[in-house]
Automatic annotation (TrEMBL):
Protein name, UniProt field: Thiamine biosynthesis protein ThiS
Database matches in SUPFAM superfamilies: MoaD/ThiS
Lineage of the organism: Bacteria, Pseudomonadati, Planctomycetota, Planctomycetia, Pirellulales
Cleaved signal peptide residues: none
Gene3D superfamilies in the record: 3.10.20.30
NCBIfam families: thiS
Superkingdom, natural source: Bacteria
């Protein structure tokens, strides 16, 4: 199915979850925020939040610094 991640179209398997996308992008799940269709998905729901055709995701990594 097709979804959009950070304004880029991607094909992902049916039944993919937010956690699957984070893993595919090789991002540490402790340092990421994911929004699906303008709704922030809590980290403890990443593994259970299934994506649907046409979903729009924004994936933001958190970086420390000073």
């Amino acid at each position: 199915m097709k979804i959009c991640i950070n304004e880029q179209s991607r094909d992902v398997p049916e039944g993919a979850t937010v956690a699957d996308i984070v893993e595919t992008l090789a991002i540490n799940p402790k340092f990421v925020a994911v929004e699906v269709n303008l709704e922030l998905i809590p980290r403890d729901e990443h593994a259970t939040h299934k994506l649907s055709e046409g979903d729009q995701l924004e994936v933001v990594t958190l970086v420390g610094g000073g």
